[in-house]
Design a protein that fits this description.
heterodimer, A: 573 residues, alpha/beta, Glucose Oxidase, domain 1, eight-stranded mixed beta sheet, six-stranded mixed beta sheet, 14 strands, B: 350 residues, alpha+beta, D-amino Acid Aminotransferase, Chain A, domain 1, six-stranded antiparallel beta sheet, five-stranded antiparallel beta sheet, 12 helices, 13 strands
Chain lengths: 573, 350
Amino acid sequence: MSDVAPLDDYVTDEWYPGFKPNFEQAAWAIEPFRTFNKEDESRFWFLDFHWPRGMTPLGLIWCEDGYTWGSQLAAETLPLPPGYGVACRIAGTHIYGNGIDVHSAHEIAQRGARMARNLPPILQRFPELWAERAEELKSALHYFENFDYRQRSLAGLWQPLFEARRFFKRSFEIHFELMYPLLVNYIGFRGLCQELGIDPAEIGKFCQGYDNKILETDRELWKVTAEARRLGISDIFAANEPENLKTALQAAGGNAQRWLDRFDEFLGVYGYRTEGACDVYLPAWIEDPTPPLGTIRTFLQKSRDFDFAAARRGAIDERDTAVEVARSKLSRAELEAFNAGLDSVRHANFAWWNDEHNFLIDLRSTLPLRRAALAIGEAAGAERKDDTCFLFWPELRDLCAGKRTWHSFRGIVKDRRDYYAYWNARRPQMPKVLGTIPAHVSDPVLIEIFGLHHHFFEGIRNAGKQVDTLVGVAASSGLVRGRARVLFTADQLHRIEPGEILICESTSPNWTPCFGKIAACVCDGGGTLAHASIVSREYRIPCVVGVGTATLMIKTGDTVEVDGGKGIVRVIR
Amino acid sequence: MTVRWLEALDAESLPLAGSKMNRLAELARLGLAVPPGFVVTTAAYRAFLDASGIEREIDARIAALNDPRDVDALTACSVRIAERFECAPLDDALTCAIETAYDELCDRRAALALPVAVRSSATGEDAAAASFAGQFETYLGITGAAEIVSAVRRCWASLFTPRALGYRKARELAHRDSPMAVGVLELVNAQASGVAFSIHPVSGKRDRIVVESSWGWGEAIVQGLVTPDHFEIDKGDERILQREIRAKTVVSMFDYRRGRVVECAMPVRLRERASLDAEQLTAIATAVKQIETHYGYPVDVEWVLDRHRRAGEPITIVQARPETVQVATDRPAPTWDILSAANRYVFAKR
């Protein structure tokens, strides 16, 4: 069976109102980023869950420097034998992606031989390699985050912007350089486990319970919450909407001000993160603390603090028990293979690195670019501080070089803001897949991270029908019933009330604080290695991913029952 | 020589004793525990065919069969032949020899009337014998010489079941090339019985012993009437890798009134109780490993746990044969190597 989802509605050669790229727009490794053309219909495209808001013009740099440079370069360098990395397109402002297949058997064999030389040493020295890369990232972030953009002329801001983009690009070279080997390692181990007859729902547990920077952030967030409770300022939180909280706390003075000082200390360490991955349009907490303040506000509604120590102990106990149970069923010969594989995936642990790298890369490496772009806007006399996010790279270059004035962009920026808002509102209706839909996908990366397995395609086919039972991937075990809260972006995360069941397209690292208050998590996309799957196991809540169309079938307020061990979601009507 | 004691068989005895009894005698010589008993040899079978004159009639009936897939014709033929085996006169000397041997078996076991198992033991190649697995008759719990003789006649007749007739017809094999011997063995007082494999019969894994077990005698398992308990034991260190206790609803038990082992409902209190403990499993694994090592290829074994066995004593083996069907799926134990894992599980086209 191969259905075609027509993409006529999205065919255009204009990236945004008033912009068509030149040939030299950006470098790419294998296949450039562009808009859809009719020929793309013969290929398969899926809606990328990472960017549920859509992308602004400057944000589209991600497509150029992340997917079509970083992923394709890494797929060439390792190399991945059957794939050239990720290709991407936009429909309106929304990103669609897919893997690029290598078709020549001869080339696949040669790439296989090269991978055989490169992969084992990378995995063997992974901790050292990551330490080196993390050091490089931290030192660059330190440089950029302390960079003084004030006092610079418009012309003088081009160079810092250029440097910031170079760093952004470099951060994704590192991202994919390490992501692919870790994925191959984990998926290989997963395959071994399945051959050994180990229950697939158990395999994810073997790598859980290792602390990372995002969990550390969540823990600190609960600490400042406890501090607010202790200082007796919960009422101020309850009485104010998140966006007004900072002003209200400042106005209250006394303990509230003391708490704000403590909160600023927290932001100084953990505040350099955005409410979404790799999107220059998003401010960091340190720029706009509404998201963490909103989260603390809902944390305070819970009668008790989330017990991280207990969750961590639970995750570790569950991990160790799962490993012991698996071992007890393996013969001596199998045990040798299992232990060696387990050593390998723990030494180079995707589940751990996933959020560890997010702290330094996905949630952070756009910030230098954003600060430079905002400084340009200020110097150029832009109306709103993030207006420059609606310009493309060559336009910013012309602006800095004095070839064009800010005045000449005013109308364009307005049109583009409208265009962005239009597509943002259409997100829930965007097709999950476009082009020629395959009967199944065999690329394990697409299956395990993006969740393109048979449950997902089944969910897509059932879209529009009234279905009370949704089936997906059993990502984290447990059975719970509760009120559904359907969210499309993280912007409303602080609205989730404790005990609700989160229904979303997919989660990103910026969503993790809410895992301390939700009862379960259900995602349209994702596999066992998806962010929601990994984090749910750490937080020990039930999770089902790759359901296909949960965000369409379930409405906020519905009562749903989530069986994370079986991968089943029931809507109780 | 129409009757032979098990311990009198040697490496040359296959044509006389059939493969089942020949192998049992071989296991006894290895030191494994097998039930004592004797074999009514293929010579006795041939003598019966010759003396009774039924062979001519059998041949005529078989010759009249046209289509080896015509189940009705095969069944009719089989029924007629069975009637002849039941009624045709038996040589007094053979009846006498069986009586004498049975009396001696009773004397050896100090029993007045020892219940025995009467088991068909076909000759011919192993593969063919394997494909008839379960086809040739076994009678459990027979007592007295007259009953034994009657059971021997029925074992002989089982050489002419519809399926055996069809099999030979399709391959143009002559029944006289695979004459039937019959074993008469003490019926072990079975607490539990079952089968064991030195290779996993489904996955082909060679690193484990698979044991299926239920209460009472093994017929209910062999005939597939009961879902047995399932165990897997590491072939190396004998750790129990899997232990699945199933609801066992049917049992083969000794019916004293009828003097037979019969199938009936399992008492509720035994249904979900484990039919073997760890020590008993180890004894089975030890025996199976020894048998596999001796033959040099995977085997399946029928075993019985004697009610009077004490911990540390060997398990009783009542049958062993090569696991011919499954050898094809023999699979090496997996190893961890990131590159082969990548090629097998990550980049293989599925």
